[in-house]
Amino acid sequence: MLFNLVQTLRLFSAVEKRRGLVLLALMGVQAALEVAGLGLIVPYIALIGKPQSIADYGFLNSIFDTSGIATIQGFLILIGVFLIALIAVRNIFQIVLFSWQSRYLLNRQMGIEKRLLNSYLRRGYLFHVQKNPAELYQNIRNASAIVNMVMFSFLQAMTEIFVMIAVMGLLFWLYPLMTLLVIVLFGGIATVSYTHLRAHETREDL
Q1: CB 51 within 8 A of CB 72
Q2: What is the pLDDT of residue 205?
Q3: Is the pLDDT score of 31 beyond 60?
Q4: What helix, strand, coil percent values describe the chain, rounded to 5?
Q5: Looking at residue 53, what DSSP letter applies?
Q6: Quick check: 38 and 86 in contact, CB under 8 A?
Q7: Which of 72, 42, 36, 27 has the alpha carbon at shortest distance from 54?
Q8: Is the pTM of this model over 0.90?
Q9: I want to staple 123 with a disulfide (CB 3.0 to 4.6 A). Which of 127, 129, 187, 189 is the partner?
Q10: CB count, 10 Å around CB of 166?
Q11: How many CA atoms lie within 13 A of 79 on its CB side?
């Protein structure tokens, strides 16, 4: 897939690449909003059941001490309102980002079709006599569809990667040692499984 992505990016202009980078940055913001909501919901639910345990959550306790709010119940109401606003902003941002992604992919698809069509139109008379117009049309549609598929898969993969990085960052901040142990454990299992699978496939090829 990496080779296909590199080949696809060569078809994009400098402006299109810059817009793609902006889109990736916005996807990073979306991942941060996802994790921010996740990181607040869990302690908020715990505090509703046991308000006196706020001291166990250092960052919330610091905000409570500096907020000037007299009671924990009032602070919980404030956090609840903030969570609702955060979820609303996250949902609106997701809708807008999805619209931008769709528009970006559609514009890239149309741009490639236009360039390929122009290249056909610049060909000589003999070329068009020897070629079936339906075949040329199908070539244009297939080329743009392949590019669109590669870019859509790349954006989907980057969305998952950004969310995973954000979640791992949150876990490292809250539980650094436990998170590191889990990464080493599952990373080791995945490496051993992949090595065993590759060795099995090599033996079958022989």
Answers
A1: yes
A2: 55
A3: yes
A4: 90, 0, 10
A5: G
A6: no
A7: 72
A8: no
A9: 127
A10: 20
A11: 27
Give CA–CA dist 105/93, Å, rounded.
Answer: 18
Give the dihedral sign, CA 146/148/151/153.
negative
The Cα–Cα gap between 72 and 66 comes to: 13
How many C-beta atoms lie closer than 10 Å to residue 108's C-beta?
21
- What are the strands, taking DSSP E only, across 90-165? none
Q: Pick the residue with more confidence: 51 or 184?
A: 184
Q: Kindly state the tokens that stand for 115.
A: 């360039």
Residue 145 CA: distances (Å) to CA of 76, 110, 112, 139, 149: 50, 10, 10, 10, 6
Side chain identity at 108, as an amino acid letter? Answer: R
Helix or strand or coil: residue 13?
coil
Q: What is the residue whose two structure tokens read 């898969």?
A: 153
In the DSSP assignment, the letter for residue 52 is: G
Rounded distance between C-alpha atoms, residue 113 and residue 107, angstroms: 10
67-109 per-position pLDDT tens digit: 777 787 888 888 888 888 988 998 899 899 888 888 888 888 8
Cβ 170 vs Cβ 43: under 8 Å? no
Dist. CA 93–CA 15, nearest whole Å: 23
Query: Amino acid letter at 195?
Result: T
Task: Determine the length of the chain.
Answer: 206
